[in-house]
Amino acid sequence: MPGQEMVGETRMRKAFGVTCFLVLMGVRTYAQFEAAGTSLFPFLKLDNNARTIAMGGASSAMANGIYGASVNPAATGFLTGTQAMIGYQSLIMDAWAGPMGYAAPYKNYGVFSSSIMYASHGYLDSSESLDENGLSTGATWHVFSLVGSLAWSKIVYDNLSIGVACKGMYHPIRSSRNYLVSATGIAFDAGCQYRMLGSRLIVAGVLQNGGFLVSNYTDDFAKLPLPLAVTVGVSYTPRDIPTLRLACDLQKANDDYLNYKPGAELAIYKKSLFVRGGYCFSEQDLEEGLKQLKNESSGTYIKSTASGLSLGVGFVTKVNGIATNVDVAYLNRSEDLGPSFALSFLVEY
Asked: What ranges in 210-332 are assigned the alpha helix state H?
């Protein structure tokens, strides 16, 4: 029936709009950037572990193994043992995400890794599910995302690691009344990481989310691109402060300003207890900050990135001879989104 199809499409558009609001963490859809919110699969921008989140997203040039693979597939190239990780991250309201990952070297062929990221975007109950007349439909809605990745990395020259990853994305919008639309896609990442001065200095470059759609919700969304991004990063440990590592990523996505992601990690007890901090901001935020210093600000500016100050701690120990990492992060988002918390576990053997 044409009328039923129209109502179904209206509901789907509403659910899609809610989904974008729930998961578009890197950029606000009402920010000043004209292309904000115009890419599909915005959940690809989520950082998937507490160490990265605590450092403000600075990850591409860190020696962090499987933790770094979601940002830079070359990060696992230096592994000599097997790593596995699992985590949890609160997002907005009842939305949450949970990643799992595994990486292992295989003879002289390099390091192979796989990961999966599930994100539940929350539920709409029957009181929130309304038709075009504002009446309750009696249906409940659930939206979630699933990203699976297979990656390979290898040291190809001296201390230079390269890596590639292939990701599959599935994003359904479904109701309790058997209404279902979904989008699927395939994306590719490619990166490199070069370590110098005994790994005290690390530089990196990454191309993320180059790919294509396999299927889309409706023709209305067919022209929206994937969130293609280019990231360059550096991290450095001063010779006189060997317990400190400073890091910064610069990232430019097709639907966002240039973003700066500085962070730091300090070992406060041997190499077992770490504190971390970071702050994510855009070039537009920086320009506005300079205007405020000059008393030229309009006073109505809204920070373009939802992410802000991040803090965290990490604990490393051995359990039955297996190196175990426990990491916790707190991310102070904008007032309308509220803070986010993350917990990650990593083992290496």
From this structure: 283-293
Give the dihedral of Cα atoms 73, 75, 78, 84; nearest 10 deg.
Answer: -80
Q: What does the alpha-carbon distance between residue 284 and residue 287 come to, in Å, rounded to a whole number?
A: 5
Residue of 144, 149, 125 whose CA lies nearest to 183: 144
| Alpha carbons 67 and 90: distance in angstroms, whole number | 18
CB atoms within 10 A of CB 218: 12
Please classify residue 245 by burial: count the beta carbons closer than 10 Å to its beta carbon, then call 0-12 exposed, 13-18 middle and 19+ buried: buried
Helix %, strand %, coil % of the chain (to 5)? 15, 50, 35
Structural tokens at position 344: 């990650």
- The letter for the amino acid at 107 is K
Among 106, 48, 99, smallest CA distance to 82 is for 106
Q: Rounded to an integer, what distance in angstroms lies between the CA atom of residue 57 and that of residue 281? A: 11
Task: Look up the pTM and report it.
Answer: 0.83
**Residue 201 · residue 168 · CB < 8 Å:** no
Q: Answer for the pair 23, 42: CB distance below 8 angstroms, yes or no.
A: yes
Kindly tell me if the per-residue pLDDT of 144 is higher than 80.
yes
Cβ of 157: how many Cβ atoms within 10 Å?
8
Residue 42, token pair as written in the block: 């915005």
**Alpha carbon distance 197, 182 (integer Å):** 48
CB atoms within 10 A of CB 323: 14
Q: Mind listing the pLDDT tens digit for each residue in 37-83?
A: 557 788 888 888 999 999 999 999 999 999 999 999 999 999 999 99
Please name the residues in contact with 306: beta carbons below 8 A apart, sequence gap of 6 or more. 24, 25, 26, 27, 28, 333, 334, 337
| Residue 47 tokens, joined | 């950082």
The per-residue pLDDT for 259 is: 93
pLDDT at 293: 82
Least Cα distance to 100 among 349, 315, 348, 344 occurs for 344
CB 66 within 8 A of CB 344: no
| Helix runs in the chain, H state only | 2-23, 50-54, 283-293
